[in-house]
Write a structure and sequence with these properties.
There is one protein chain. This protein has six helices and twelve strands. Helix content is about 20%, strand content about 30%. By secondary structure, it is α+β, with helices and mostly antiparallel strands. The protein starts with 5 loop residues before the first helix and ends in an 8-residue tail after the last strand. The strands form two sheets. It has a seven-stranded mixed beta sheet with strand order 1-2-3-7-6-5-4, with helices on both faces. It has a five-stranded antiparallel beta sheet with strand order 11-10-9-8-12, with no helix packed on it. It binds biotin.
Length: about 270
């Protein structure tokens, strides 16, 4: 993967996006781009700050997991956005961002892109990337961390905690985009996503998210804390909860991690 260059990312962005960028910082190495933006002054309402690194030494994933972010192997990027008024349903922003990233990946040629609730970017049963949403200023500022594998080392599997085999863009696309091009496409797209979420809420993303839903109709196990529930995934609600049809009827799951039941588990 080529070197990150903030000037060439700026050159690839339209004027409207540049005007709402409070900060665009690039690093050859950093602990975590999310941690960096959480420590920076929040952008003004409607504005966005972006941090991108070639390598993260303490990259963070959901549920306190480590996010494997070796040098020049992926897009390791965070965006901070300050809302005009506190969103009623901030956690659904993860899904809105997922839907927009999936649209963008399809445009880039990743036709098999899928989404696994709540935050995984998938290609088939392998993980291409993930989203880590955090917030500051009492929920007025969202910090969204995006990790997309572009060219992982061969031994990547040995370093990944989540138990889902990874995949990267260079093994999917014959002509993968440069890191600056990928970053610019995603910054432009997510700026529009954040404004739309601010203005219209999550409802306006439900249909878009559902087109990429990889769980609908499958038998799954959802773990929330120490509790595990089994059932059939039935899409999402208007506020981004997962709909699970289990033995006690329909349940709304607002947080948790999901495992697909291997058909072999069902064989007695
Ligand atoms: C997950 O699937 O668990 C979420 C992964 C999010 C990783 C990104 S990489 C950029 C940003 N900085 C971090 O420390 N994490 C996010």
């Amino acid at each position: 993967m080529n070197k990150l260059n903030a000037d060439s990312i700026r050159c690839l962005l339209p004027q409207a996006t540049l005007q709402s960028l409070a900060e665009l910082s690039t690093f050859s190495e950093i602990g975590s781009t999310n941690s960096y933006l959480l420590q920076r002054p929040e952008p003004s309402p409607g504005m966005m700050s972006v941090a991108i690194a070639e390598q993260q030494t303490s990259g963070r994933g959901r549920r306190g997991r480590r996010w494997y972010s070796p040098s020049r192997s992926g897009l390791w990027m965070s965006l901070a956005y300050t809302f005009d008024s506190r969103p009623a349903n901030m956690s659904a922003l993860t899904l809105a961002i997922g839907a927009s990233l999936a649209d963008e990946l399809v445009i880039l040629g990743v036709s098999e892109t899928g989404l696994k609730w709540p935050n995984d970017l998938m290609v088939g049963d392998r993980k291409l990337g993930g989203i880590l949403l955090e917030s500051s200023s009492g929920g007025m500022t969202a910090v969204a961390g995006i990790g997309i594998n572009t060219a992982l080392p061969q031994d990547a599997n040995d370093h990944i905690e989540a138990g889902i085999e990874p995949i990267d863009l260079s093994s999917i696309l014959t002509d993968p985009p440069s890191i600056d091009h990928l970053a610019a496409r995603i910054i432009e797209r997510l700026q529009a996503t954040l404004h739309q979420f601010d203005r219209d809420g999550f409802k306006s993303f439900v249909a878009g998210w559902s087109r990429f839903d990889t769980l609908a109709g499958l038998e799954i196990v959802v773990r929330s804390g120490d509790v595990e529930q089994t059932g059939t995934a039935q899409g999402i609600t208007d506020d981004g909860a997962l709909i699970l049809k289990g033995k006690h009827g329909i349940e709304r799951i607002v947080s948790g991690s999901v495992r697909i039941v291997d058909c072999r588990e069902a064989v007695v």
